[in-house]
Write a structure and sequence with these properties.
With 399 residues, this protein is an alpha/beta fold. It has two domains: 123 residues, Enolase-like, N-terminal domain (Enolase-like, domain 1, 2-Layer Sandwich), CATH 3.30.390; 232 residues, TIM Barrel, CATH 3.20.20. Helix content is 40%, strand content 16%. It is built from 15 helices and 13 strands. The strands form two sheets. Strands 4, 5, 6, 7, 8, 9, 10, 11, 12 and 13 form a ten-stranded mixed beta sheet that branches. Helix 3 runs antiparallel to helix 4, helix 8 packs parallel to helix 9 and helix 10 packs parallel to helix 12. The longest helix has 21 residues.
């Protein structure tokens, strides 16, 4: 069995979105550039594998430090006993980070080993997990971080070009007229809309009553209906999600920041969500996402993988969805050159559906030339301390 000969932490920064996007104004104090953090494993047979931990978007130096801490417990060990390698890493990290940061790093290691194993066998990662269950999966456009009508229209044009019929926008409780406006604009093109209320960073979170009032206010001025409402409440109040489900007729989705399959499965079993959104680069890797799919099937809960990181994070979640029979995946719409370059044609979308990737492993490309074009910039970090930038008043969206 191949041995892990070397582990390398790779931090790269790339232009991201544009300076006029609200997410940049709110969350990127140093402008439109984003960092991703990867683990690259090299086996003694020369095969390499790439994995990613989403936390590097927020704290790249912390990510690198934990990768380095874990390295001695991985190098020199068997590469293809992935479950054992994950248990070893949990032994190193669980005492001080059973949930949270270390789980992102463990995710990166696990994904890298899955990638290396599949490449060594000459097959896509999903073949390690029982094979793809479909030739394509419906995809939804994840954007709507807009505060101007031309920005929304630009995204709707892209969705129409790709044949995508579902669009996720970001709205807070005061965005009543704005939300109704985009729902009607989208409907005119045959596109349905889901709403992310962005409460995954809220402290304190908004109450259930505010979500109900928001939905009622939107429905009072448009005949269009939301496909789902996501992250409508704070992540640490599962009982509030259950109350929300009982009070609205919109499917309730959530869970992108949950860092263990155990917690997500407990929420599934307790009726917290109609749909869960595990992210392979957050929850412990591809195997952890597969555990979530298995538990969700028993409770008839939908699984829609979260995909908002870099190339390795996105493709890891996509391969899990293909292997587990997922019926919907996320497509991040904000431009990220490095991610697009690494994924290449393995993220092909046809008629609104993600086509099954066929390259060995995750199907990613990382060369010295790519690394030299996207050097790490320590200032390119996402700040969860949101900046106030003064978006247009909701009244301006009235028809």
């Amino acid at each position: 069995m191949p041995i892990i000969e070397n582990v390398r932490c790779v931090l790269l920064s790339s232009p991201y979105a544009d300076a006029d996007d609200p997410e940049i104004k709110e969350c990127f104090p140093n402008g439109p550039k984003r960092t991703i953090g990867m683990v690259e494993v090299t086996l003694d047979n020369g095969v390499t594998g790439l994995g990613e931990g989403y936390m590097a978007v927020f704290a790249p130096l912390v990510f690198r430090s934990i990768v380095d801490l874990c390295r001695p417990y991985v190098e020199g060990r068997e590469a293809f006993d992935i479950d054992r390698r994950v248990r070893d890493l949990r032994s190193v990290c669980d005492y001080w980070s059973l949930q949270g940061a270390a789980r992102h790093v463990i995710s990166a290691y696990e994904i890298a080993l899955q990638d290396a194993k599949a490449k060594a066998q000459g097959v896509p990662v999903y073949d390690l997990l029982g094979g793809a269950k479909a030739e394509s999966i419906e995809i939804y456009g994840s954007g709507g971080c807009c505060d101007a009508k031309p920005q929304f229209l630009r995204e709707l044009d892209l969705l129409s070009k790709l044949g995508i019929g579902l669009y996720k926008i970001r709205s807070v409780k005061g965005d009543v007229h704005r939300t109704a406006w985009i729902m009607e604009e989208a409907a005119a093109r045959g596109i349905r809309v889901g709403v992310d209320m962005c409460q995954n960073l809220a402290d304190p979170p908004q109450p259930v009553e505010d979500v109900v009032a928001f939905i009622d206010a939107v429905y009072a001025i448009t005949d269009q209906r939301m496909v789902f409402v996501e992250e409508a409440l704070g992540p640490d109040s599962p009982e509030s999600f259950r109350e929300l489900r009982a009070r609205i007729d919109v499917p309730v989705y959530g869970g992108e920041i949950i860092t263990t399959p155990k917690e997500m499965i407990e929420r599934i079993n307790n009726g917290v969500y109609d749909g869960v959104q595990p992210d392979a680069s957050v929850i412990g890797g591809i195997g952890a996402v597969m555990e979530v799919f298995s538990a969700a099937r028993e409770k008839d809960v939908r699984v829609i993988v979260h995909a908002w990181g870099g190339a390795a994070a996105i493709m890891a979640s996509y391969h899990a969805a293909f292997a587990a029979g997922g019926d919907l995946v996320e497509y991040p719409m904000l431009d990220f050159r490095l991610g697009a370059e690494m994924i290449g044609d393995q993220g092909r979308i046809e008629q609104g559906r993600l086509v099954r990737p066929t390259a060995p492993g995750l199907g990613l490309t990382l060369t010295p030339e790519i690394e030299s074009r996207y050097p790490f910039d320590e200032t390119a970090v996402y700040s969860c301390m949101l900046q106030e930038y003064g978006p247009p008043p909701d009244e301006s969206w009235k028809r």
